[in-house]
């Protein structure tokens, strides 16, 4: 029997479909970046993503921000553009959020 490990594409989901049942799941969402804000310490970044069914905050932590910058990606270049992101669903202060998986998990969509 041949066994191989391959990358499994995350489930594409609409923001309106996200519930507490999805916490911990890795999903893909395509939407428009409406705003980008850095934390007061500058160690993380908050992106508001709108897919037409709702809005969700995408959280990018310091290690991923460093990777993005080292790869020459300027987050501001994503503002007002359609992107596809992959991240894990979490909850913070009763709001659903998405934590970016890694620096390769945000891509512009044409």
Automatic annotation (TrEMBL):
- Which residues are in the OB domain? 27-100
Top-level taxon of origin: Archaea
Coiled-coil stretches:
none
Query: Could you tell me which Gene3D superfamilies the record lists for this protein?
Result: Nucleic acid-binding proteins
- Pfam (any one): tRNA_anti-codon
- One GO molecular function term? nucleic acid binding
Q: Which InterPro entries match?
A: NA-bd_OB-fold (IPR012340), NA-bd_OB_tRNA (IPR004365)
What is the protein name for this chain? OB-fold nucleic acid binding domain-containing protein
């Amino acid at each position: 029997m041949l066994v191989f490990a391959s990358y499994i594409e995350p489930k594409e989901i609409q923001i309106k479909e996200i519930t507490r049942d999805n916490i911990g799941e890795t999903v893909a969402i395509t939407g428009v970046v409406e705003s980008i804000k850095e934390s007061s310490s500058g160690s993380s970044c908050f992106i508001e993503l709108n897919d037409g069914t709702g809005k969700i905050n995408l959280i990018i932590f310091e290690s991923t921000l460093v990777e993005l910058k080292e790869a020459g990606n300027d987050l501001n270049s994503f503002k007002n553009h359609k992107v596809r992101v992959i991240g894990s669903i979490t909850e913070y202060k009763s709001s659903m959020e998405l934590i970016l998986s890694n620096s390769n998990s945000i891509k512009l969509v044409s």
